[in-house]
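[Automated response] Your request has been received and processed.

Submitted sequence:
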Amino acid sequence: MRSVLRNALLMMAGCAALAAAASADEHEHRARVPMLKAYAQECSGCHIAFPPRMLPAASWQRVMAGLATHYGSDASLDTATVNQISVWLNANAGTGRRLREAPPEDRITRSEWFLRKHHEVAPGVFLRPSIKSAANCAACHAGAERGDYDDDGVRIPR
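Generated structure:
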């Protein structure tokens, strides 16, 4: 009887470890989605080409539908490019618990997960001349251009 109980407990612990690993793997796997050339070319002219996993599909649909007034700028593209980028963004958009709801104004920096991950960063830090805004991920995350936002690589400039 003891061995049955011990085996059951070991099996439950193993399942919990696998579930945690799968969750972490899904996040890491999503970080490595190959960047669509058109997306990288068009979006990185003004800011880094954010990994599509950072917003849910509904947010990306609104962002792509509003390119003429994209956060105060005209980022209009031809129809074929909009369609190509939209399909890719929707296919690779963020899913799961952390993106249950679209953030206010579809801004990555206003999402619950972004605010939770940056809770220790004082708001004034984002206003430093070396950073300029919370949307300038590459200022602190050296691997941001590659979709790498690992905490171990963070260096906050003065």
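Summary generated for your ticket: Residues 4-31 have pLDDT under 50 and may be disordered. DSSP finds five helices and no strands in the chain.
If you did not submit this request, please reply to this message.
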